[in-house]
Amino acid sequence: MTPKTFLHTHPYEPFLFPEAKKLIVGTLPPPRFTIGDLKEGDVDFCYGSRDGQLWPILDRIFDLGLAFKSTKHAVQQRKDFLLNHRIGICDIVKSAERIKIDASDLGLQNIELRNMFGYLHNYPKIDTLLFTGGNSKNGPEYLFRKYIKEYGVKLKLVSNEIPRIHEFILPDSNASLSAASDTRRVIRTVSLTAPSGAANRAVGSLEEYKRIKAKNPEFNTIDFRVLQYSKFF
Predict the structure, then answer these.
(1) Residue 204: how many CB atoms within 10 A of its CB?
(2) Which one, of 52, 49, 58, lies nearest residue 77 by Cα?
(3) Which H/E stretch holds residue 59?
(4) 3-state secondary structure of 78
(5) Could you write out the three-class secondary structure of 78-93?
(6) Beta strands 22-25 and 109-113: pairing type?
(7) Which terminal residue of the chain has fewer beta carbons within 10 Å of its beta carbon, N or C?
(8) Is cis: bond before 195, omega within 30 of 0?
(9) Which pTM does this prediction carry?
């Protein structure tokens, strides 16, 4: 008997606007966001899971005073921050299937990716993609590599230090990309340490983390991400 699959569709359209210069690129929010069954403390917006760390990290870096409640005010706070700092959000996965209903990227099957190059052409000021995860299977960088391979595009390594930095040349637009620019441009990618509890073990094994932890025993994995993210946001 074939197991029943769950169609995990992205509940949010990309948050994009003409002034955006950086783009946060992840995969999918937890399945409960797809069906609208949010928990107390979730925020009905990108990266709004109460278990996620992206907004708590940014809250610390920028002293935003964010609300972590299921309110319109909490959503607007996040949108205002993104607009003020010219940061958009465009997760790469449009939809996928799951057999086990959880938030693991590894469990994604039959993945349908968004037209990332189309968005980049339509918003020509974007020069940096901030991946919320690296090149592990079905992570943001992994899926982006799979996407650009179809266009004959490759990532060029700029820095092998964590977070790894790459660059690529955006290929020329074609007739299917509306409002696109034919000006070729270099776009940088930064593979940030994933803002999830699942990545804490990987953080703990990093030499830089262990070095700082040895000097300051109270230093933790969230502190490490705050240091890392502050360099790129």
Answers:
(1) 13
(2) 58
(3) helix 54-62
(4) helix
(5) HHHHHHHCCEEECCCE
(6) unpaired
(7) N
(8) no
(9) 0.91
Nearest Cα residue to 7 out of 90, 105, 108, 146:
108
What is the C-alpha to C-alpha distance for residues 188 and 165, in angstroms, rounded to an integer? Answer: 7
User: Which residue in this structure is represented by tokens 């590599």?
Assistant: 145
Sign, CA dihedral 60-61-65-70, equals negative
Tell me which H or E stretch contains 169. Answer: strand 164-169
Which tokens belong to 209? 């983390």
pLDDT recorded at residue 106? 82
Report the amino acid identity of residue 213: K
With CA atoms as reference, report the closest residue to 126 among 162, 170, 160, 84: 170
- Which tokens in the block code for residue 169? 């040349």
- Between the alpha carbon of residue 27 and those of residues 14, 35, 65, 89, 115, the distances in Å are 12, 17, 26, 11, 13
Split at pLDDT 50, 70, 90, the class of 196 is: confident
d(CA 49, CA 45) in angstroms, rounded, equals 8
Cβ proximity of 89 and 140 under 8 Å: no
Q: Which helix or strand (DSSP H or E) is residue 188 part of?
A: strand 186-191
